[in-house]
Structures are given as structure tokens and as C-alpha cells.
Amino acid sequence: MPNKAVILLSGGLDSTTVFAIANREGFDGYALSIRYGQRHAIELAAAERVAASLRAAEHVIADVNLNLFGGSALTGDIDVPKRERVADLPPGIPATYVPARNTVFLAIALAWAEVLEATDIFMGVNALDYSGYPDCRPEYVRAFETMANLATKAAVEQGRRTTIHTPLIELTKAQIIERGLALGVDYGLTHSCYDPGSDGLACGSCDSCLLRLKGFSEAGAIDPIAYKERCGVA
After folding, report:
1. Average pLDDT for consecutive 10-residue bins of the chain (234 residues)?
2. How far apart are CA 168 and CA 170, in angstroms?
């Protein structure tokens, strides 16, 4: 019988690839998406499409309203930065960073995993072609895993230790796309844009769109989703 795993699924390119990897590794995937007050909540529809396509054992959408606090271009009254090229991305942590988002998401995933008697959690964080978020780094993931195994009844009384899997953390975006295509991922089901139009089209110029387009270009593949415009990726 396959091992159960909770898989954080945003509906984006990275989390979709991670789900396909977990499937290939023989896990029975329980998809967890979060409605957290994000302006790009259209990604949840993509998550539903992906969960169905990759045959999730169950798909839960949890509500945690981080919009109450704001503090991010994704959850507050701050404009999503737009740029012409990936080379224009500035150093430092961008305005699209959502305070403590991955900590909140992992905590919810940990709770569900304990209920499912699952010891594996997958997430699509990446420390190479990414936007500079502090909660996407390997040292953060290791620290959360240590904390998780101090915090649950499953670990303390039953010896069931949780493992946080981050199979993309040391891959470039192009390598992630190549891996997903080799696994048969349909990236046309996904959504990555931070600031889509009312028609659902990706803007093509937010950080997430630029990094996605760069990845497809470097992988020698065509991005199947529609864009309002496609800026340069150099």
C-alpha cells in the first residue's frame, strides 16, 4: 500500500512538479491548498485541476486569512512589482514576500499529516531561481522539520518522525520544468502569475511570470499558458 504524503499544492509550476515527483516515488498524495487572502486566488482553480489530473487521494482547501495583516503585495494594498526582464529583479526580499507564509502552510500540513498518520510532507520551495524569500531556504526547511518532530504526539509518543521533502530546492527553474515534462506534467493546467487580469491571463511581467518564462526558455520548451504580454527573460 502506498505511503500517505501531504503535498502543498498552490496550482503553480513548482508545486505541480513536486506532486508528480511524489507520485513517481510511490506516495499516495493528499493535496493541501491554502486560501490565504491572496490577490491571485485564481491559483486555487489551477490547484483543483492539477489535483484531479495527478489523481490526488483527497484535495483540501484550507482558509487562513493573512489578508487581515497585509504586509505584502499579495495580501495588502501594495502594488505587485512589474519588470521588463529577469535581470531587472533587484537584490533582497521583494514586496511579494508574505510574512511567515510557509511557516503557516507547513503548520497546517503538519496537522493534517498527523491526523492522516502520514510522516511525509512535500513542498515546492526552491533556493536557486526564486524570488529571494527567506522561507524557501534549506536551513529554514531543516529548522521546521526539527521543530515538527518536537511538536506532535505522533513523534513524541509514537516515534513517527515527519520528513519535509523539498525535491526542487537545488534545481534551476529550467531543470524543474525538464523534470516535470519527463514525468508527463501538463503545465497548461497550472497558474503562476501574481497579478492576473480579470480575464485570468497571466500578466507576463511580475517576478513569478518572468522566472517561469525564463525557465521555459532555458529548457527549450514552450510555456502552454496564455499571457497578456511576454516580457524579456534575459
Report:
1. 90 98 98 95 96 98 95 94 85 91 98 97 87 89 97 92 96 96 98 93 94 95 91 59
2. 6
DSSP class of residue 55 equals T
pLDDT of residue 89: 81
* pLDDT score recorded for residue 177: 98
Give the max Cα distance, the chain: 54
Structural domains in the chain? 3-191 (3.40.50.620)
Phi, psi of 217 (to 5 degrees): -60, -45
| List of residues 6+ apart from 126 with CB closer than 8 A | 14, 136, 168, 169, 171, 173, 176
- Report the 10 Å Cβ neighbour count for 6: 30
CB of 36 within 8 A of CB of 151?
A: no
